[in-house]
Amino acid sequence: MAHPRLTNSLSSSSLRNLNPKPRLIPLCTCSCRPFSSQSLILHSHPLFLARPKPLLRFARRTGPPLVLAAVGQAEPELPQTSTPTVIPEDEEDLPSKSQLQGSQLRNRVVFGLGIGISVGGIVLTGGWVFVVALAAAVFTGAREYFELVRSRGITAGMTPPPRYVSRVCSVICALMPLFVMYRGHIDVSVTSAAFVLATALLLQRGSPRFAQLSSAIFGLFYCGYLPSFWVKLRCSLAAPALNTKIGATWPILLGGQAHWTVGLVVTLITISSVIAADTFAFLGGKAFGRTPLTSVSPKKTWEGTIIGFCGCIITSVVLSKIFSWPIPLSSAIGLGVLNFLGSVFGDLTESMIKRDAGVKDSGTLIPGHGGVLDRADSYLFTGALAYNFVKTFLPVYGV
């Protein structure tokens, strides 16, 4: 179509007198973008339209919008590029996803076995080795907890405690197992620590908030007070497990019969029961899981939880037969039930904190497992429940 404001036209004689190299007449007098002599094709004249081949044609380039080329003039050849094969996103990501899952599973198995062997050796050794290792784990877990409290997801609805308060609370939590080991009780230490934290928060600059106090005190309880019961469980129950046959063959250099105390036996049973509960619940949920357990942790199912419960009870009963402690079957079942409840509610508590924080893992210290809290959440309540069960319901707990 011709330009709406064309003012000149081309006569038939001018077409006959065209030179080999065409010359164009300016056709537009408007204020629009000027036409270049190499950017216009004259296709409106009837004689031009009647010819089988136009004298002039366009060659599309990557530079100027349109370039005028004479008939017979060689057009520059564009580089031949092969059309890339489009791979669907799902198929493209499939190998990388499978490789990533395989790497995560390998790290999880390798580091899980390493942690299990290390923890088993520490529990068997007992004494100050057990307490120092627990204190280091408590300090790391407390740091992870206060980082979760300071995360963007939680701070959107509350004010976190200052960093110096978080650090002081982490140190206090790490000192609690040592205090229990060498003082024998924890009530005074918890009360004193809570007083120190409350004083530090009230004397801070600015306006103290109740959310700061509540998150700090809960961190003191969750990361310091509860893990200290493992010291009481392993080291305070020093009565010998008289019926445990493995103690008779235990080397003298490693403590002999006296090394196998009720504290060692119940610690091994409790840890093994928690591992069995987590493992059976995971496998059962993968195979049969259909009904979600709670919105706090959407991946947990009722089917997996029931299978985990059965695995925990069976493990507790079998180990009680191996160690010949506790003798009553009802006591072994009761210990297994408490271990399972502590495992589940400890896991759900940490899941609730991570869900509010908007993170998947509490840390990245352990490849394939996350942080210390991710591995120890199932054990935080079980130590206290197992200790109180033995002290309350098994008064003659050595036999």
From TrEMBL:
Enzyme class: transferase
GO MF, one example: phosphatidate cytidylyltransferase activity
EC number: 2.7.7.41
Alphabetical list of Pfam families matching this protein: CTP_transf_1 (PF01148)
Gene Ontology biological process terms, A to Z: phospholipid biosynthetic process
Keyword Lyase: no
Transmembrane segments: 110-143, 188-203, 210-230, 260-283, 304-323
Keyword annotations: Lipid biosynthesis, Lipid metabolism, Membrane, Nucleotidyltransferase, Phospholipid biosynthesis, Phospholipid metabolism, Transferase, Transmembrane, Transmembrane helix
UniProt pathway annotation: Phospholipid metabolism; CDP-diacylglycerol biosynthesis; CDP-diacylglycerol from sn-glycerol 3-phosphate: step 3/3; Lipid metabolism
Region of interest (Disordered), ranges: 73-100
Signal peptide: none
Record's catalysed reaction(s): a 1,2-diacyl-sn-glycero-3-phosphate + CTP + H(+) = a CDP-1,2-diacyl-sn-glycerol + diphosphate
Protein's name in the database: phosphatidate cytidylyltransferase
